[in-house]
TrEMBL record:
UniProt region (Disordered), positions on chain: 249-275
Chain ranges of the AAA+ ATPase domain: 99-231
Tree of life domain: Bacteria
Keyword match Nucleotide-binding: yes
GO MF, any single term: ATP binding
Organism: Candidatus Reconcilbacillus cellulovorans
Transmembrane domains' residue ranges: none
Similarity section: Belongs to the IS21/IS1162 putative ATP-binding protein family.
Alphabetized SMART domains for the sequence: AAA (SM00382)
CDD domains in the cross-refs: AAA
UniProtKB keywords: ATP-binding, Nucleotide-binding
Name of the protein described by the UniProt record: AAA family ATPase
Comp. bias (Basic and acidic residues): 261-275
Length: 275
């Protein structure tokens, strides 16, 4: 036991705290399974590296302002069959980031838009791709404050810095003219320079009402959808599935039809004149 305590103390002195924590249990496993010395060392150091990776990801998540952690493995594709798993797996490779393309998740509340957006953000962080998360309400308010303080250029540079900008909950509240113009400036600033992941409960045909200006909405969609993957989720609310089974809650109408998505997306591919 003296040698064990000495080895544990040396590991801690070397700041290999995870290895020190599991040293005794891994020694027992090595004895039971008759590992070689090299196998034992690889396993012990592997645990240390895995713990450091987990801590690194947690730190990056805090810096990215992710509200919680979700993974693609946790998403119930069987419950939402309208989601193309092959497309999501392709997005998880982060090829869209290298192409400075965008991802837009559309659908009613509770169908998993934010889950998928955050899960892709987590995938990006594991691949050392910088991410920043914000709701559209937080985004607009920060841009508004920066505008009034004559710091808009600096704030725009901050939102341009991450390779992926996640904007959640677009469409839940309408925007006034200043907010809509600030949002347009942000989309224009990142256009073909960095990827965005957006979630929205509104079909593209409703964005004119959302921004209070159909011409401005068309200009936003023109830039947003020029290089974009659109995921239209038409399923039921995952959060309410148990109540639906019990007959307590009925299925709400889907505000985002696949036909309108295709029509608006095809229309947006026709380049509009710059505003």
């Amino acid at each position: 036991m003296l040698e064990l305590d000495q080895a544990r103390g040396q590991l801690e002195e070397l700041k290999l705290f995870a290895a020190a924590d599991v040293l005794e249990s891994r020694l027992q496993q090595a004895t039971d399974k008759q590992w070689t010395y090299v196998s034992f060392l690889v396993d012990l150091l592997g645990e240390e590296l895995a713990q450091r990776l987990r801590r690194n990801i947690q730190t990056k998540m805090r810096m990215a302002r992710l509200p919680y952690q979700k993974t693609l493995a946790e998403f119930d594709f069987a419950f939402q069959p309208s989601v193309d798993k092959k497309l999501i797996d392709e997005l998880a490779t982060m090829n869209f980031v290298r192409q400075a393309a965008n991802v837009v998740f559309l659908g009613p509340p509770g169908v998993g838009k934010s889950h998928l957006a955050i899960a892709l953000a987590v995938e990006a962080l594991t691949k050392s791709i910088s991410v920043y998360f914000t709701t559209v309400t937080q985004l607009v308010e920060e841009l508004r404050r920066a505008h009034h303080a004559n710091r808009l250029d600096a704030k725009m540079r901050q939102y341009l810095r991450p390779r992926i900008l996640v904007i959640d909950e677009v469409g839940y509240l309408p925007m006034d003219s200043l907010a809509a113009n600030l949002f347009f400036q942000l989309i224009s600033t990142r256009y073909e320079r960095g990827s965005m992941i957006l979630t929205s409960n509104k079909s593209f045909g409703d964005w004119g009402e959302l921004f209070g200006d159909s011409v401005l909405a068309s200009a936003i969609l023109d830039r947003l959808l020029h290089h974009a993957h659109i995921v239209n989720i038409r399923g039921q609310s995952y959060r309410l599935k148990d109540k639906m089974k019990a007959g307590v809650y009925g299925t709400p109408p889907d505000p985002v039809s696949s036909r309108s998505v295709r029509k608006e997306a095809n229309h947006a591919e026709k380049r509009l004149p710059d505003l």
